[in-house]
Prior knowledge:
Layout: E1 12-21, E2 24-35, E3 38-45, E4 50-57, E5 63-71, E6 78-84, E7 88-95, E8 102-110, E9 114-123, E10 128-140, E11 143-150, E12 155-164, E13 170-179, E14 184-194, E15 199-206, E16 210-220, E17 223-232, E18 242-253, E19 260-269, E20 278-286
Antiparallel strand pairs: 1-20, 2-3, 3-4, 4-5, 5-6, 6-7, 7-8, 8-9, 9-10, 10-11, 11-12, 12-13, 13-14, 14-15, 15-16, 16-17, 17-18, 18-19, 19-20
Amino acid sequence: xxxxxxxxxxxxxxxxxxxxxxxxxxxxxxxxxxxxxxxxxxxxxxxxxxxxxxxxxxxxxxxxxxxxxxxxxxxxxxxxxxxxxxxxxxxxxxxxxxxxxxxxxxxxxxxxxxxxxxxxxxxxxxxxxxxxxxxxxxxxxxxxxxxxxxxxxxxxxxxxxxxxxxxxxxxxxxxxxxxxxxxxxxxxxxxxxxxxxxxxxxxxxxxxxxxxxxxxxxxxxxxxxxxxxxxxxxxxxxxxxxxxxxxxxxxxxxxxxxxxxxxxxxxxxxxxxxxxxxxxxxxxxxxxxxxxxxxxxxxxxxxxxxxxxxxxxx
Length: 314
């Protein structure tokens, strides 16, 4: 994926993105505008779909209101209210579909050393919960322990991260996942180490024989090169048995600090560069200072590194 962003002196940003997979290419253009406590985001893609998002901050103390609508599907509207305090955060969202409205709820309570939270989604038409998850996290000076019950209580995940040394250049991670519906257990171990201030390596291995590795190097300030790969020993070197990702991300500012450029290119490599290989790119561009109609909501950054263990090997 390729990203470029230029920011004008005002609050306007224009973003373009292009993704190519095999012989198929897709793209979108996103515009953003911020006025006082209001953000307006409009995104148009190659499938003629328009996503509009309005965000109102601090209408009430510590509260944010968000409304979104995707055209031409008029039933895709959604309204969300977020509330944040020092030790608590809550979100309530509902869809604007009259036939089957869904209500989402989430609540998190915690301190710097302990936190607990949960989320649920309720389908009013079926009178049933479509989602409910819960978790707790305990953070010590040199370790973090997480317990998560997810996918409607079907999956239990336990993870432990331990930092090594006072400088915390290295860490070891262990994760246990239990899926009750299939009676399947997955055990993953791994770690990361900072070779120097500019280079980091990560690795992971699970009991299914899947081995992953990642190398990240800061070529120069604000320029990062990432190389990662996954190998499944059960599939050996057959197509689909391994996958590699090469990513380069560069960000820079103009001498006058009025323009900002963010550019990244991600190349997914599969055996023999088959049709499953893909390359994605996106560009962020600044609007002229006099333009004041649109603003963009944060776009998804390119998913260039595999998620191995949370949070070290992500």
